[in-house]
Amino acid sequence: MDARLRRVNKEIADCKNDKTSNIHIELIDDSPFHLKGSFPGPEETPYEGGKFDVDIVIPESYPFQPVKMKFITKVYHPNISSASGAICLDILKDAWSPVLTLKSTLISLQSLLCSPEPNDPQDAEVAKHYTTSRSSFEETATYWTQIYAGGPGPKKEKSMAKPSERDEIAIAGLDKAHVEKFEGIGFERGKVIDVLRRLNYRGANAAQITDDRVVEELLK
Amino acid sequence: MTSEESEGLESRTESIANEVDETTAAEAKPQSPGSQLEEVTVCTALSGVALADLSHSQLIDLNQNALNDLVPNRPLIEGVEPISALRAEYESGSPRFRTQIDGLTDAGFRLLRRARGDGDCFYRAVGFAFVEQIFGDQEQDMAVASALSLLESSLEWLDAVGFQRLVYEDFYDTLCGLIQNIATPEMNGSVLTEATLLDQFQHPEASNSIVAFLRLLTSSHLRLNEEEYSPFLFHPELGEPMNVRDFCENFVEGSGKEADHVQITALCRILRLNVKVAYLDGRSDTVDFVDFQNDSTSKRFITLLYRPGHYDILLTDDGSPSAAALV
């Protein structure tokens, strides 16, 4: 058995035997080098109550080179691509060392959800949202956790019922009234959402952006 | 660590800083191939300049770039070659390098064993020379036994700093298996020879496992002797003091992280090695040697050749690593 397989088998067993960490690793297909990791969203964060799945690929030169990980579950977070699930975390790149394991790396991802680093973003738009209007960011992240990760949804929600259909305005982290305003001028909803998201038309920042600027973008 | 030993800190710092820069740049703009291009431009800009006019850090860059170009084609560690081959490479460069190489030749170092310039060269060279020294010991069985007991007792340190057994046991088994095999035949009856030793160190899995184990030993030693080392722990890029944990995680434990004086001091102490480092830097006509003396009962030592950003192994005519002229 080669060293990589021996090591991965030990790591999977170690994770199975550890009942306290709440980190799970399972096979995706027949290969022991393509795995799925999962962990619960950390408490006291917008990710609480969600279950987050991570795609794990063990490269040929593991553990000398870093494991490749990306989120399967869609996550709204400055250091995670909202489109691809790609992760910006030093230990997955040049700060990797053979001391790290699949379990410790998944735990690091869990901590990343607790402490975003907006100055080193993977998703620039989400990072802008995070830095300019935190409460609106948290609402959006909570909504994503609810619809993509099976989270409970907003704590102060009057009705605890799950939204019957996905609200594309909430997914984009925008205000319904803002979107409707520009829809009212005659622009198509998808286009309006796209432009307002790119402009970070949220919270106090919305007041900084003139209607003309938005219309200019909409006409492009 | 003496203040003299710490002098070399700055030199190595530069090259690591460059590596870090490149990585950071590449991460910041993953879609831009520009960073790669810029670097080529820098290299080209330097090519018309006399080597002697370059600053020390520029020399390191130049050297590291040249080494990087060679990386894919070079074995992890090579067979022995005459040092004249190295001299020939400097034929069109600074005469000072040639004078320094001539000085090494006069001192008895006529042979060279190269390590690949992949950031692991120090650990790989020391690992190889460590096993080779046991192999060549007149009292081989005793040397094997004492090396194995040294390594076994070191596991305590790895546990003490909290490394998981599953993380280091395969690396440990690889190194110990190799040393064991000097004295004890394998299942198929073969014992270690010069040829199989080289073969093992050229095999990425075994070779990188040994490098990884030496890195973890170095890290655990630094962490357990924090008070002694902390005045010398600086971020190689920013020059700011670092705590031992951050230093080890970022500049010791990972593959390809280059060794500086702190790491050299630590590893030579752990393995109780006498090591001389010959500084071939083209800055003067003579070669300076820096000694890391850790076994006063032995006159044997390992000699490493340092060129800006890189380590190889120096050997005397008979293939022994000790030159009589320097004892």
UniProtKB/TrEMBL annotation, chain A:
<dbReference type="InterPro" id="IPR023313">
    <property type="entry name" value="UBQ-conjugating_AS"/>
</dbReference>
<comment type="similarity">
    <text>Belongs to the ubiquitin-conjugating enzyme family.</text>
</comment>
<protein>
    <recommendedName>
        <fullName>Ubiquitin-conjugating enzyme E2 1</fullName>
        <ecNumber>2.3.2.23</ecNumber>
    </recommendedName>
</protein>
<dbReference type="InterPro" id="IPR009060">
    <property type="entry name" value="UBA-like_sf"/>
</dbReference>
<dbReference type="GO" id="GO:0005524">
    <property type="term" value="F:ATP binding"/>
</dbReference>
<dbReference type="Pfam" id="PF09288">
    <property type="entry name" value="UBA_3"/>
</dbReference>
<keyword id="KW-0833">Ubl conjugation pathway</keyword>
<dbReference type="InterPro" id="IPR016135">
    <property type="entry name" value="UBQ-conjugating_enzyme/RWD"/>
</dbReference>
<dbReference type="InterPro" id="IPR000608">
    <property type="entry name" value="UBC"/>
</dbReference>
<feature type="domain" description="UBC core">
    <location>
        <begin position="3"/>
        <end position="150"/>
    </location>
</feature>
<dbReference type="Pfam" id="PF00179">
    <property type="entry name" value="UQ_con"/>
</dbReference>
<dbReference type="InterPro" id="IPR015368">
    <property type="entry name" value="UBA_C_fun"/>
</dbReference>
<feature type="active site" description="Glycyl thioester intermediate">
    <location>
        <position position="88"/>
    </location>
</feature>
<keyword id="KW-0547">Nucleotide-binding</keyword>
<keyword id="KW-0808">Transferase</keyword>
<dbReference type="GO" id="GO:0061631">
    <property type="term" value="F:ubiquitin conjugating enzyme activity"/>
</dbReference>
<keyword id="KW-0067">ATP-binding</keyword>
UniProtKB/TrEMBL annotation, chain B:
<dbReference type="InterPro" id="IPR003323">
    <property type="entry name" value="OTU_dom"/>
</dbReference>
<keyword id="KW-0378">Hydrolase</keyword>
<dbReference type="GO" id="GO:0043130">
    <property type="term" value="F:ubiquitin binding"/>
</dbReference>
<dbReference type="InterPro" id="IPR019400">
    <property type="entry name" value="Peptidase_C65_otubain"/>
</dbReference>
<dbReference type="InterPro" id="IPR042467">
    <property type="entry name" value="Peptidase_C65_otubain_sub2"/>
</dbReference>
<keyword id="KW-0645">Protease</keyword>
<dbReference type="GO" id="GO:0005634">
    <property type="term" value="C:nucleus"/>
</dbReference>
<dbReference type="Pfam" id="PF10275">
    <property type="entry name" value="Peptidase_C65"/>
</dbReference>
<keyword id="KW-0788">Thiol protease</keyword>
<feature type="domain" description="OTU">
    <location>
        <begin position="110"/>
        <end position="317"/>
    </location>
</feature>
<keyword id="KW-0833">Ubl conjugation pathway</keyword>
<dbReference type="InterPro" id="IPR038765">
    <property type="entry name" value="Papain-like_cys_pep_sf"/>
</dbReference>
<dbReference type="GO" id="GO:0004843">
    <property type="term" value="F:cysteine-type deubiquitinase activity"/>
</dbReference>
<protein>
    <recommendedName>
        <fullName>ubiquitinyl hydrolase 1</fullName>
        <ecNumber>3.4.19.12</ecNumber>
    </recommendedName>
</protein>
<dbReference type="GO" id="GO:0006508">
    <property type="term" value="P:proteolysis"/>
</dbReference>
<feature type="region of interest" description="Disordered">
    <location>
        <begin position="1"/>
        <end position="36"/>
    </location>
</feature>
<dbReference type="GO" id="GO:0071108">
    <property type="term" value="P:protein K48-linked deubiquitination"/>
</dbReference>
<dbReference type="InterPro" id="IPR042468">
    <property type="entry name" value="Peptidase_C65_otubain_sub1"/>
</dbReference>
